User: Fold these one by one.
Assistant:
Number 1:
Amino acid sequence: MSWLSNLFKKEPALEPADLSLLKTDVHSHLIPSIDDGSKSLEDSINMIRTFKEMGYQKIITTPHVMSDFYKNTPETILGGLEKVKNELKRQNIDIEVEAAAEYYLDETLEPQVKGGKLLTFGKNYLLFELPFMSEPPNLASFIFELQTNGYTPILAHPERYGFYYKEFEKYKELSEKGVHLQLNILSLVGHYGPEAQKIAERLIDEGLITFLGSDCHNVMHQQGLQLARTKPYFHKLLTSGRLKNLEL
Ligand SMILES: [Fe+2]
């Protein structure tokens, strides 16, 4: 549990931030058994209940769609969402839950843009992630294709792509092109390592982050979220006025 070491860092801890200031989470894996997130309906309900207790009012959950590993479709995702919503209702847990997806950018994704079957949320926002090894050669054309077809791209966890660490200007270029950058809250407690944390903080300092997500897969991630709520950078971003989570 990498964020545990953060508990012992000498850094001023603030009062846990009020998550109703964020309102909506835009990135999580809470549909049971269709990706590497929630393992059962019970698991999903427990995590959603905790989100509600933390102060979130709405959850947009985003199962992985990857042509090799997670061959999810709107049917598997929305079918799973229905089961989750029914169970929430049965247990009288009152929180808004929607689903979209976290699309992995490989060569199979771009041809699907025109088909109109990609899952989005809010103002036709489409959440996508990159491979961790290198920037894919079709990134620019994919973004162009999305935008010309009326989608607004959101890049998931930009702070996790090591290939950008020495080219920070790439983040600015993406943002200037109209790509929203979605930070993972757990990056602020070092969950993905010290470098990702440093980049996360710089992205906040430079005003490049417009969405915050939990990227919650399991209960351990939620414990990390609780810790993140006491971090000065989390407070800084929450009060920056830049986050669009509130509009959803
Ligand atoms: Fe994710």
Number 2:
Amino acid sequence: MNFSFIDEVFDPLQKKLVKRWVLELPGAGCEWYKKTGGCTMCGFNQSTYKFTFGGHLYPHFIFMLLFYYAYSLVKKQKPEQLVIYNGGSFLSDKEIPLKTQLAILRFVKKHPTLQKIMVESRAEFATPEKLRQYHPAIFGKKLEIAFGLESANNEVRNKCLKKGLGREVFENAVKDTKSFGFQAFAYVFLKPHCLNEEEAVNDAINSIRYCFDKDIDEVSLSCAFVQKGTPLHALYQRGEFQPPTLRSIVRVIEATHLFGPVRIGSFDDEPPPLAKPSNNDDTDLLYEQAIHLYRRTHDVKVFEILMPGGID
Ligand code: SF4
């Protein structure tokens, strides 16, 4: 598996394609997963456990060795942004040592071409104390913190998806993040297994509206796919769950793109999905091409151009 590479993504805040360094760091694994068995749709723990001998926290120097080795693989391509995925919360000291978190921020601060770093975290770790430590370490460059909200509906988020996240915790994290001059990003999930297709589309639209009402800068629509060993996999095997259709994804984007920048998350991950979004008919290729183009432009016109007669 390639854990350090460059891709090109559309940055809706800058309205252009940017060269992004994607780095997968072997954090000790999501604390929420360790405490509770994790969120219904999440398969991160499997890769995390594989690369950390069962969720072990490596010392700072190991992280930095890996980090500089990873950097040597992409250095020549002069990345503009860095995104770190650690299968949990970058801001949690039990998952990534604090010293490592700050060293990486300082690296970006001093770097000649990197302008921004994005990291993921559960909302409860974005405390004023933590953000106060981050502020001088990244000052002058941009930091974006991505929070998994999944759904604005409390029942869906906590009962169905088992997220264990209060709205107040999310709203405070966003407020604090913004008050330190950082950007806030949210993941919204399409489709939770407890909702039918129509309900899931409406839930995603309402959740995206809620995110922008709460001052989130960008949203990414995480479209359900099935990974081996997750609770979703068990439902899928029993015929009780199907990922959303590609039509539903387009409907959500068309309904929300005026609220603020909405990305469409990748349908690939580690471990590789066993089932992913599909119309289950011969329109898949056309829709996939349209979605691919949307990811590179954030222009909803790509849906009209590629599908004369409109989207049903
Ligand atoms: S979705 Fe996030 S919070 Fe939930 S188990 Fe996975 S890594 Fe942890």
